[in-house]
Amino acid sequence: MHVLRGKSLPSYLFFAGILLTTLTSCELFWSPKSPHGYVVPRPNKMILEKKLNEISGLCYLPEENAFLTIADNKQKVYRVTVDGKVSNYFEHDFAKQDDFEDVVKVDSSVYVLVSDGTIIDIKRKDSLLVTTKYHFPTTDDTNKNDFETLYYDSTSKGLIMLCKECEIESGKGIRTAYRFDIYTHQFDPAPYYTIPTKSVADKLKDGKIDFHPSAAAFNPIDKRLYILSSKGHLLISTDGKSKVLEVFRLNPTLYPQAEGIAFASNGDMYITNEAKLGKPTLLRIPYKSMTKKR
In 3D, which of 120, 93, 94, 107 has the Cα closest to residue 63? Predict the structure, then answer.
């Protein structure tokens, strides 16, 4: 029995109050809300092999119902099935060791993003791998740009890179996207679009955000672009350009370091986590078309 202002308070009410306070404070860090058709706080979890401890990037292969992925510190492209089985996609290493961040397949080319903005084009020719590097243009040798996100935009026929943090953004409160033309093999000289960080913060009740894009993919069902920010544990949906539509906080226990996102043809969402809290994971969030909008 606990006493409050001279009155006895049953123990179960006292502890219920503590629990309610705890849950309320947790709401500042993640939200039970989800995009329409999904229940993000209740994913199906698959443990991946140790060699994918630093898994980074995810690209859906509709013809195989599987994914391409890479690891930050490995020179291999991997195939991961929807139930989490891992194999080598290419028989050989594709490059010298570097800080690899994302992977996208378009037609016969597999593109790998390096953290400095370099794009590596990998093609299979007979039993060999032919690779070509395209370097992101910078104004000096310091290259203070950091990229983790690469995705294909069919409307622009280009690969889009999102800055995790780039020098051009300093003091402007924006995140910047750049386009790489897969036919001319040229980077557009000007940004493709920008996202004001304030427009992300405005979608949250507390208005506090840490927005550093770590992965992105288009949803084939609602046609929105979904952007992950591992730092800050955010899932953001946009119109594919500057307009922010919704923002959700992810539970850091389930999504400790979300570095990859992809959608299957049926709309199922898949998110990968690096082995920050134990083991790397592939999380499946099924799409349910009859789910009521929350």
Answer: 107
